[in-house]
Structure prediction request, 668 residues.
Amino acid sequence: MAITEDRPLALESGEVVTKNNRPLGALTRPQSDVGWASWFTTVDHKKIGIMYGVGSLFFFLFGGVEALLIRIQLSQPGNSFLSESLYNQVFTMHGVTMVFLVIMPMAAAFANYLLPLQVGARDVAFPRLNAFSFWCWLAGAIFLNTSWFLGGAPDGGWFAYAPNTSATFAPGNGMDFYAIGLQIAGIASLVSAINLIVTVLNMRAPGMTLLKMPIFTWMMLVVQFLLLFAVPVITIALFLLTFDRSFDANFFNVAEGGSPLLWQHLFWIFGHPEVYILILPAFGIISEVIPTFSRKPIFGYPFMVGSGIAIGFMGWGVWAHHMFVSGLGPISVAAFSLSTMFIAVPTGVKILNWLATMWGGRLRFNTSMLFAVGVITMFTIGGLSGVTHAVAPSDTQQTDTYYIVAHFHYVIFGGALLGMFSGFYFWWPKVFGHKLNEKWGKINFWTMLIGFNVTFGPMHVLGLQGMARRHHSYAEADGFTVWNQVVSLGSFVIAIGVLAFLINVVVSRREAKRNPVEMGPDPWDARSLEWSTASPTPVHNFDKDPVVQYQDDWWHRKWGTNDEGTIVRIAHPEDIADDGSNTNVHLPSPSYWPLVLSFSLPIIGYAIIFSLWLLIPAGIMFLAGFVGWALEPADDPEAAHGHDDHDDHGDNHDAATVSVGAEGASVD
Prediction:
């Protein structure tokens, strides 16, 4: 059916949108939630999401520098730019940083900010627990990186295969920092997963059934369940490794009856669901972006939801394809080969549905859409190379070569990371009240995409030629020099693309300050509930409880059909969206106890590595944080408690019906 508009959207024409003589986005914030110090005590899911985003981008730059150091080392045969020991540390920390300190928290940034908004909630179920998850992750990340200054970083690879992680082969403290730091970060992931699961299942807006939730919410819900069951597995493995190294246990020591294969099984039972923990958020992001800029609903919504659930479920049955050369035996190899082939089916369903959504749509190729299309193409390449690993003879040849490195980066960088950038450009106006610059955005996209393919495409060739991964150097006679130089050049092109993004952030912010134009609530004519409230999002999210009647309910409030069956605009976003003026909401109390409790954990880690005497101050700090948290009141005494008698929403529930979980907002 044709879509017609009676006039252009105000937010596209540049006019300032107001409602009830107040600019959209005007907020009444409690005094305790403003100023720079509020970031240390906030329990607002939006601020926590922003902090996750800033933290992950910082470590993205850090991990990117580590990648450039690796590529400088490998740009010439026999290079001595990095010593063997330092190369192993940089190689290990690059992998650990990108997986645990970049993509996972970057996904958490989107989840924390958007999930309550997309389900129509005031906040997450347990706001202070949410703050604890961020500070705990940051504490683990800082603890892990202090290893650089305290005897050397981890050097056993991000996968930490035994016996390479034993005191014999990794005699410094680096692997101790690895084991303990990831346990601390794992606590953050676990409590965040529980919090977000409860939020989605228990705090949806009236009328929002599970099959009316946005695809992004669905994918993040699947991710939280994966974290809930996968994090304990890697925690057990890390706990055993800590005891092996610090207390002379022998879980992985063959001479004393231990088994190195035990580590591999535990790591990859976590590690393959981890791949989907990394990629499903990007799938959810582009499943919001593509319908918006195709001007169509997502094609095959039930199949998109079902395929995401199937990916999460089947991901538990393919871990041993990482272990085909470890001597599992032909029956196990055959079984895991088949399961690896089958898991490509639900992923293929998603790709076909994205293409069907775009087919016949009114496509708008802005930067967010370009990144989304980039995800489809790059992930498809990575998926096809991954299917070759289901063929055991082929996998045996490719194992521990740069073919694996190429495949992994096409999936994680080409899929997950490009998807995150699509989300940045899409939701930036909702978070900060202004768009990112499209000119710089396209420079960012094309530079990253070209640099990405120049970097990781030739790695397939290098792998098939026999270049081993994790090697510090190679000989000129091996014939790897030319392709390695191409790969190294491409890595610096990616760096230029990342620099373009940073320039874009600065330029866009300055332009927004110099020429302020109110974006309005919905600059993209999007479909889900987060666009039904002011931009930037008010501290209380919604003035009234949203009441949901349809999938893509916000779109249905703006568009309808006339007597001829033509889709026509029935309302403009600025006329029906919340303006952030409600002052009735009692907000959750800011608290510094999650920060105190979180940063007691690294001190416990230092105690295990250096001196058990440090357990005394660590224990005092932990108990202070625990008891202070328990005794602190949940309600914010400084929140504005005024009354707002006018009702701009007709059928919406009165704000007095709203509450946020056991720790959350209540309404006067």
In short: The mean pLDDT is 89. The longest helix spans residues 84-118.
